[in-house]
Amino acid sequence: MSEINTDFLKQCILTLEKSYEYLKKSKENSIEFEMYRNSLVKSFEMALEQSGKLLRKKITPYFATKKAVNTLNFKDLFRQAALYNLLTENDATRWFKYRDNRNNTAHDYGQKFAQETLNLIEDFLEDVKKLKGMIENG
Question: What's the total number of domains in the chain?
């Protein structure tokens, strides 16, 4: 199997980490706080989507056809990864929570959504780094 390129995910993680770092140093309700929070939310969304795309590539060898993998929705993708011991069931459950949070953006781009995303960021950073390592190293 060819190596899966994780460069873009790595960049998303770095942007997410920096945004979070600067956000914590910013005064709430300042324009800087808003900028870093917006960057953090967007970086979260991008890292989440990229994680799903890369995981799809990673689990393809476990399926008879690429088409079968492409029919999986995001949560089924993570369920299958847990089934094949690429992730634990607890890992997959946290990824479901991240996805549910992301899906809420279609309905609520306000402060409530941003705060919910902030509440998930530390766990998400840990999980996305772990997922990146698994994709790179098996």
Answer: 1
Position 82 in a domain:
yes
Q: What is the pLDDT of residues 31-82, one digit of tens each?
A: 999 899 989 989 999 999 999 999 999 999 999 999 999 999 999 999 999 9
The reported pTM is 0.88
DSSP string, 113-136: HHHHHHHHHHHHHHHHHHHHHHHH
Rounded Cα distance between 24 and 103, Å, is 25
Q: Is residue 2 part of a domain?
A: no
Q: For the domain that residue 45 is a member of, what is the CATH number?
A: 1.20.120.330
How far does Cα 71 stand from its chain's mean position?
20
Report the phi/psi class of residue 26: left, alpha or beta, with left for phi > 0 and alpha for psi in -120 to 50. beta
Residue type, 119: N
Q: Is residue 14 part of a domain?
A: yes
Alpha-carbon gap, residue 97 to 80, rounded angstroms: 16
